[in-house]
Amino acid sequence: MSINIFIMLQKTFYYFTILISYCAISANAFGQDMYELDGNVTEVKLYNKLKLGGTAPSGVKIDVNNFYLSIGGTPVIPITGEFHFSRYPKQYWDESIRKMKAGGINVIATYVFWNVHEENEGHFEWKGDKDLREFIDLCRKNNIYIIVRIGPFCHGEIRNGGLPDWLLGKPFSIRSNDPMYLSCVQRLYNAIGGQLKGYYFKEGGPIIGIQIENEYQHSAAPWGLTYPGQPLDLTASERDAAITQEGVGIAKENNPYAELGNDHMKILKSLALTAGMDVPLYTATGWGNAAIIPNECIPVTAAYAYPFWTPKRDYSPFFLYKDMHSQPDYAPVRYIPQDYPVFAAELGSGIVSIYSRRPVAVHKSFDAMINRCLGSGANGIGYYMYHGGSTPKGQNSYFSDEAYGLPKISYDFQAPIGEYGQVREGFHRLKLLHFFVQDFGNLLAPMKTVLPANAATLIPQDIHSLRYSARIKVSSGFVFLNNFQDDTTMVAQKNIRLHIKTSKNDIYIPQSGGFDLDSDENAIFPFNQQLNGINLNYATAQLMAKTGNGNEIYYIFYSPKGVRSEFSFAGNVKVTGDKNLSVSGGSGNVLVRNITEGSEFTVTTKGKTIHILLLDKEFALKAYRITIAGRSYFAFSEAVVLEKDNGIQLLNDGGNEFKVSFYPKIANLPKTTFGYVTAVAGNNIFSEFKITLPKADMLVVSKQVSARKYTVTLPQTLPAYINDAYLNVTYIADTAMAFLDGVLVADEFYKGMEWQVGLRKFLNGQPQEMVFILGLCCATLPTL
Questions:
Q1: How far is residue 435's CA from residue 364's CA, in Å, rounded to a whole number?
Q2: Is-contact 234 217, C-beta < 8 A?
Q3: What's the CA gap between 536 and 417, in Å, rounded?
């Protein structure tokens, strides 16, 4: 196994620190509350009215019913991450795709912005960072599916929502059935189709889906050709102007043109098919009463906890459990929800800033929202954005949505993977759920949502009540708990006990006593589950993943913060583990307690054996799924662990020394391209190694030119073992801009946090000075 190692080195520009403290009061501090769930429910009635699905040359089929998607006959829950190829340097696409895969993403969604590719009428550009075909080929090589969002309208905070400027001056109504407009769209679709040819699922390629239009008859973007102070002229057909809003929301007006809207979507799909775009899945943004293609597409949903288009902060409903299969978010909708699976396409993993509104997306909200969506019946997860980027500049204008007051360059989005490829807290929190969905989605997808009696009466402002639900099929399932709410602090839950009635038995979690759940924490606990033929009654630990081959099966759990983990097994089982392990009970139920986090125990019955690894959450956050010599392992490291060729690549942010551990244990000492590897002895559970790289000191000289202008001398190149160098800029001003040779290359709106600029894409082997200009340092800053 070869290991290529790079350090992501960071140099700091200025320092500014804010300390925030708060106090939370504990609920149920003086007693125990029993929380009930009645799981005696009928199974989901499955049927298929949808004209969707397709077959690969290998014979593998994608099918869609009213509840879930299946691949090769197995129910799956796809995990989609948005990444705009045209907003990121082509030379780093492969690394970013591998980062997304390491984070558990198995489908990438990407926009094809019309104005980026046909800025000047009749001339399409697909070279360099606009090379859609190369991007799709890299997805194929990395075994990741792709959904192409073809517009014509996209938004994505791009100028005119992706419509070219030259459309405004044409003698027809945009986003309508005007033949002249449709002929322009057909030319666009034909050009896109030419780039996609040979990469469709039916051809053995990675393209499984096409999104038609975006938020049609719901939302629009302002035209970039506007005047300061002028009311925004939105990119909607004149017919739909009265029903069009800014941003994602609830439709407040009846739409007399709803059937015409659906008809337009059908026409767009027919144009896409004519252009060769024949795929198993077609999607349409179905929230807020937007138009769809009835029975011919999946209407996807969204949830933004920190929107920039609202006038101020507010409590969102996206952390309260509900039955999303009957009550979609941003309802009312234009379709019968029960006829379609619940697929989320735009779960707000981050948010962009506009000059007058700068929300800060809390990364603890990311996994809390996914927990809530899964616990509410979602059978598809999708993030907008999962990977940030930088909006390119056109020949005639900036491509960013300047009319809305966005940064001209930055589209960092506070995403799990940032504008320069930075891997952030949300990336690590989400991947724990992604591993779970990858390994147990086939069990979860057919399960029905079960809610407590008070679910319909809970409101986001209620910070005291326990929020919980379950997904159940027959008598087995998963219970979901969430103790996070945006823009407030939930009260820590104490001494919780759950009572779940099933058709098989009554489950009490825990068997006696209770467990705690910290503020801002969430959890998923299994009950009545078969672990390789061994009956698990319940666990107060979160099931993360499984690995192993043949008879050696390993299940990985972790303890959510505040939770004391225990396991209950049915039947006559033998449990062995470390000396602290407490095993009680007889032939009926065996209870395992006092498990040391970071240890393994073995459960055996009737010739079947499983290994269970229990981790604390902090260590679990360092987990990565990898393959070595065709066998599945988990690696744990403070470094980012990526698969590359036949080995792994480690990207460590900061120091030149770090550790990596493998589970199950590996036999050989890894080899490294740079530095050296030494084995760390004394661990019976993991193979642990210390990586030591050459030290790197980078000289960065800064000077102040004027009150608001600074320069920084950049390194000419990076050493071979340095993957990137980050310049950390700490400042107080309304905006900050960075220039090279007088050209704006990066910008940022102040949000009370450090601005990080990745340097590798700017270095050219020559001496350079990056010039920073700060905005109004002493002005009253916009509300965050």
A1: 18
A2: no
A3: 36
Q: Is the dihedral of CA 493, 496, 502, 507 positive or negative?
A: positive
- Angle at which helix 425-444 crosses helix 364-375, to 10 degrees, equals 10
Contacts of 780 (CB under 8 A, 6+ apart): none
Q: Would you kindly state where each structural domain of the chain is located, as residue ranges?
A: 33-42+446-620, 76-442
Take residue 143 and report the two structure tokens written for it: 């075994």
Question: Which residue type, as a one-letter code, is found at position 345?
Answer: A
The answer to whether the CB of 64 falls within 8 A of the CB of 210 is no
- Residue 276: DSSP 8-state: T
Q: Are strands 381-383 and 79-82 parallel, antiparallel or unpaired?
A: parallel
What CA–CA distance (Å, rounded) separates 483 from 562?
A: 12
Fold of the CATH domain 76-442:
TIM Barrel (3.20.20)
pTM to 2 decimal places: 0.95
Yes or no: say if 311 and 375 are a contact pair by the CB < 8 Å rule.
Answer: no
3-state helix, strand, coil in the chain (%, to 5): 15, 35, 50
pLDDT one-digit tens code per residue, 550-590: 778 999 999 999 899 999 999 989 999 988 899 998 667 99
Q: Are 398 and 406 in contact (CB under 8 A)?
A: no
Nearest alpha carbon to residue 671 among 657, 640, 654, 650: 650
Where do the DSSP E strands lie in 104-199? 107-111, 145-149
Q: Element (H or E) spanning 516, and its range?
A: strand 515-517
- For residues 734 and 776, is the Cβ–Cβ distance under 8 A? yes
Mean pLDDT for the stretch of residues 133-156: 98
In angstroms, the Cα distances linking 203 to 57, 89, 150, 197, 279 are 6, 28, 19, 9, 10
* Residue whose entry in the numeric block shows the structure tokens 């507010």: 314
Q: CATH top-level class for 33-42+446-620?
A: mainly beta
